[in-house]
Structures are given as C-alpha cells and as structure tokens.
Amino acid sequence: MKETRQKLGPNDVCWCGSGKKYKKCHLSADAHGASTPEAETAPKRDPLLLNEPERNGMRKAGATNAELMDYLRDFIVPGITTKRIDELVADWTHARGHVCATLNYRGSYPAHCCTSPNHVVCHGIPGSYVLKEGDIVNVDLTTIVDGWHGDQSETFLVGQVSEETLRLVQCTFDAMWLAIDAIKPYSKVIEIGQAIKRHASRLELSVVEDYQGHGIGRKFHQRPHIPHFPDRYHGQQILEPGMCFTIEPMINQGTKRTVLDRKDGWTVYTADGKLSAQFEHTILMTEKGPEVLTQPKRGPARGHKFTNQAVTA
User: Rounded distance, CA 255 to CA 232, Å?
Assistant: First the structure.
C-alpha cells in the first residue's frame, strides 16, 4: 500500500526535497492526486489556481446560481412546502440544461437543493414541511454549469418574524460580509474565522464549528477548507489569486453544538432546538481582492438591513 503524502502537516518540510513548507509546495497537488514521482519533471500548474478562462467559467456558474435564487424569492412565503421549493429548483435548472449538484451527492442525498427551516442548521431535505408565518428558512443551491459549480445560500424571512429572529439573521449576514471584506490576496484562511467569531461574540451568538466552507471549482468540495472560527490548523492556508471558495457561516441563537439526524443521515439540527441562520457566497480571490460570484440582483447585498419587508428589486 502506498503511503499517503497528505499525512504531512501544512508547515512540515515537503516530501519532494525542495526544502519548502508542504503548503507552499506539493500540498494542493497531492490533494488532487496530481503529484507523482513520475510526473516530477512535467510542467506543473496548481489546479486550485484558476486561469482567466477557468475564472470565467466560475463567474458564469455563480451568476446562473444567483439567477435561480432570485427566481425562488417570490415563492418563499407562508403556505409553500419545502418540497415545492425543490421542485421549482429542479424545473428551472433542467429547463436550462444545467445540473443540480446536490441530487444524489455521495450517492444518497435525495433532493435538488437543501432547505433548512428554523432550528435546522444545514442539509435539510425538502419534504412536507409547510412554511408558516414567523419561520426562517435557509435555501442552499449549487448549480453545475458547463462543468463548473456555483454555490450559495440565503436565509429567508417567512412573513413577519420576531425581533430576536431578525437579530440572528442580520448578524449572520453581516458576519459573512465582514469575513469577505477581511481578506485580500495572500491572506490566511484564519482571518475569515476571526472576523466571523468576533462579530457573533459581540452579539452573544454562537458560531457552528462542525461544518465549514470549502474550495470549489470543477469539484463541489475541495481545498481550501474554510472554518468559520479561528481554527489554527486549516487557518494557515494562504488564499492565493485564482482560488475559489465559499464563505458560509452558520450562527446559532444558543449553543454552537449540532446534532445529526441518524435516520436520514443528512439533516443537522441545533443541539438545543434554538434557531440557526446561514448565508453563503462563492468567492474568487483575484489579484485585486475577493470577487463575489453569486450576488443575486434582487437579493440582499453588502450593507443590507433586514426588516419585516420583503427584499425587492
């Protein structure tokens, strides 16, 4: 059996003998199975660092995904089932010749999107639940366009919600944007978690640590790992121009602890039954700074303040 090179820590000396730290040398290539002794003399390009045509592929996927989120916006009202939201996602996506990345993900996820109401943290499976006045629901969409993945989520207010609910949703949205604005080319991933944790703590809310953001491109999930708290291990990864990744904080009213539904193997709940909110964007790090690829035209943008009025164009 071959030894896996990924046992090296990011700050260890690379196995290739270059004398560089693993994270500065073969870490990304090893993660994709791209570096082998036979290939050492071949020209190398880090697959995580997208060139301009590849960046444009991600831009198109992100814009398409955002268009789908805007399409759903008017349907998310009291009385709709989460299954109906999933049907709308499937019909819209298939009509345009694209693919819903979540369907049959890992061979078992049964729906075209994730719908996570109230105390569901993430990965909620659409079903018979009827949204009612005062609910919140996170809709998480990932669309594959010409082989590239656009990924985002948004927490929707269903009718009139309480002030405490508004406070949670606003905090989560602001934390995502604070994290986006905290980074620049060659920032460390830990700066994302620091910004999110700092803001949530000020409002006495908790940041989920069990689930995190991720690199994205032709693969749904890849490096870099993006924790939403100051994680010292994954936090040392450098965000280089050309990297694509998601920032998607999940923030809870109560404990940060979560519970996985053992029956369906997907749905994640808050351990104390209190509310959870999430927002997510796909980010391309460019030479000039982070570029948000999934901003909907009718959705909340940087600086938005949530009220009990619907977001409109």
Answer: 22
